[in-house]
Amino acid sequence: MSSILRVVRRARWRNDAFTQLTWNAFPADPLGDMATTENALSVWLIERDKSNLDEVLTAVAASRERVSNIDFVLIPYQELAELIDKYNAIISEVPGKTPHLIANIWHRDLSNLTGNKLLAIAKYFYRYRQDVDRYMPQTVKELLINAYNNDLIEKNKLQPSLREELAEVV
Asked: Which of 61, 85, 99, 167 could be a cystine partner for 157, CB 3.0 to 4.6 Å?
């Protein structure tokens, strides 16, 4: 089954302080990673075999100002699709706007969101908080260098600070 990837900050999702909340409480911190634009939440489709995971994370990294770790959570696509359907939201194929020449095809928007719908989605994602994964900066840098050297990134679309950081090693 394919998955949906959302970039998060692990500290917001796996904080031991959350255990102090009652069983049905939802902490506020993870909402900081659920920012929307025009009532849509940006996510990525990850293939069943995860063969596109590195390309997607390279695309995310290529959109940043510098090399840093990437924290993310993977949610089963079918389960999320059922939740989206229940709340009359939409999963739309919307090309990403990253400098990566291939990965943008896997970008999706969860759209037609309201505050209540977004909270329901955040609570659903929170169920997977123990599965938040991290690519360390060295791994991210290697992915970027590989994509840079193989012309998979539009170099002129990189942030100047990231372009300078990569120019030091390529």
From this structure: 99
